[in-house]
Amino acid sequence: MERWADQMSENSTGATGPEVIKAIPLRRPGRWIAAAIIIVLAALFLYGAATNDAYRWGTYGKYLFDRRILEGIGVTLELTVLAMLLAVVLGTLLAVMRLSPNGVLRVTAWIYLWIFRGTPVFVQLVFWGLVPSLYKTIFLGVPFGPHLLELDVQSLQAAFAFAVLGLGLNEAAYMAEIVRAGINSVGEGQHEASVALGMSWSQTMRRTVLPQAMRVIIPPTGNELIGMLKTTSLVTAIPLSTDLYGRARDIYGVNFQPIPLLLVTATWYLAVTSVLMVGQYYLERHYSRGISRQLTGKQLQDLADANVEKAK
pLDDT per residue over 172-213, tens digit each? Predict the structure, then answer.
């Protein structure tokens, strides 16, 4: 220990030190060859697309900032935000139910996940679109008694609400597993310490476990948000045609030019997704602070100084 401390002291004062190693990186010509091939192929594809009249770039530029397309973007963002809010709240509740000591709650949560994860989201949205046919009238009141409320479902124009419910309920099944993984990442010692302080199981989850689990929950939730944005294109099954893809479909149903309108749709999806990916990057970096075990230069210097003082 003393010998190591003396060496660290000498290195820190600059008296002596090991010779600087002059490392020469290996030449890797394969990388340059692969990069050149990729660049050439990309250039050929872009040139071919730019000179291909079938893409109808004039129509693409005409509808890129069309009022109907911009309104569709707004509806798509509303669907994404509302459905994700519903999914996060319900998914957290389902995750807590799955980890609950109550067997009824565990089985209920498992059945929910089994149904919504085991069936395609498009099929679920089709069922939500058929709700007015399945339940023409909903009666609320005492069974075999007077009805306090009678709701005519067929008279409702609730395609947007059904789309939010369909997307949110489906996504909640996946968010439940993400939240459960985050909760399980918290050490058992945290549970035991909370119990020792006299907290109940619900208080432990709310005050101790969930706040610490956010470090694991937040990053994959960003991925689910991006996936939700693209999944909104399936609300045509409701049917709902006021979203981005629905607007583009209505336009090319009239002018019979689907390719440029699909390119417009893809461009806006890509633009919004890119913004969300940037936000996800900074969010992940924020919640990843303190995870790395690699010491900085200042930390190494402080450690060396501490060992020198200890050796003295």
Answer: 999 999 988 888 888 777 777 777 878 877 778 777 877 778
CATH code: domain of residue 167: 1.10.3720.10
DSSP letters spanning 107-170: HHHHHHHHHHHHS-HHHHHHHHHTHHHH-SEEEEESTTS-EEEEEEGGG---HHHHHHHHHHHH
Burial class (CB in 10 A: 0-12, 13-18, 19+), 183: buried
Which amino acid is located at 206 in the chain? Answer: R
Domain membership of residue 274 (yes or no) is no
Give residue 129's domain range.
73-141+149-242
Q: Residue 155 domain-assigned?
A: yes
Q: What DSSP designation does 209 have?
A: I
Structure confidence by residue, pLDDT tens digits, 137-172: 776 666 666 666 666 666 666 889 899 999 999 999
What span, in angstroms and rounded, lies between the C-alpha atoms of 289 and 285? 7
Query: What distance in Å separates the CA atoms of residue 291 and residue 278, rounded to the nearest whole number?
Result: 21
Say what the pTM is: 0.76
The SS3 call for residue 282 is helix
CA torsion angle 278 284 290 292 (round to 10): -90
Distance CA 16, CA 41 (A): 54
pLDDT for the residue 20: 67
- 241 contacts 72 by C-beta, under 8 angstroms: no
Contact 94, 112 (CB under 8 A): yes
Determine which helix (DSSP H) or strand (DSSP E) holds 76, and give its type and residue range. Answer: helix 67-98
